[in-house]
Amino acid sequence: MMLFRHRVAIAAVVLAAAMHGTAAAQRNDSYTWKLGLNVGAMAFQTVGQAQTTVVPSGGAHFLIMAHRGGLLVGVDEGVGKNEHATGNVLFNDIRRYQAVLMAFPVSGPLEPYFGGGVGILQIVGPRVDRNLITDPSQQASILADARDRSATGFLTILAGIQGRWKRFTVFAQYEAATSPSDDKLLHGSTQSLLGGIRIGLGSAREGVSAGN
């Protein structure tokens, strides 16, 4: 946990330096809005599943570009089936909301990028396993507790590579988040590997050409 936080701090410093050092050089996609769609895999652990579980995921985001940095705001969902949050609480999906500061230090045919940010990760629709718990009052109590423990905040870092062609950007990236506190249903670092496409929607600042 301490090592991961140390890496987040280093990534934040590198991110800030990259964004500051390249501010004078405007890209041809500076000051634009981009809509991103992605698919991939999400890996997580819960209190009821000691081993890492990997499920398919999909999501969407908006990227607001500045000079060589930007702000990404998006949501992803990992799609599982009858996953165990605890021994008697089941769920299917995991949903992630996040806001990430991005840096794009190099402009070229293939461009590496980095990011760091914050978000909320939640188990979607926890439910009691009625094959194990048959008493209605006990079911209600367990479900109320599960809902209270289903969401957690996190810090995240990501790194990826992308290729741009006119309005379109194809990308692949890896992301890792900090571990929740011990009172949550999720356990350990949540990680994802995904790829997708971003589509330029036009200028994000009046008077500045999108250059698409």
Please describe what this structure looks like.
The chain is α+β, with helices and mostly antiparallel strands and 212 residues long. The chain has a single domain, classed as Porin. The protein is 16% helix and 58% strand. It is built from 2 helices and 9 strands; from the N terminus they run H-E-E-E-E-E-E-H-E-E-E. The chain has helices at 2-21, 136-148, and strands at residues 32-46, 49-65, 69-84, 89-103, 111-124, 127-128, 151-165, 168-177, 186-203. Strand 1 (32-46) and strand 2 (49-65) form a beta hairpin. The longest helix has 20 residues, at 2-21.
Question: What overall form do the CA principal axes indicate?
Answer: elongated
SSE order, one letter for each helix or strand: HEEEEEEHEEE
Mean pLDDT: 86
User: How much of the polypeptide forms β-strand, as a percent range?
Assistant: over 45%
Number of domain units = 1
In DSSP terms (H or I, runs of 4 or more residues), the helix count works out at 2
Q: Helix coverage percent of residues?
A: 10-25%
Computed Rg: 20 Å
Low-confidence stretches: 7-25, 207-212
Ends apart, CA distance between termini: 42 Å
* Multimeric state: single chain
Helical/strand content category: alpha+beta
Widest sheet: strand order? 1-2-3-4-5-7-8-9
Largest beta-sheet details: 8 strands, antiparallel, barrel
DSSP strand tally: 9
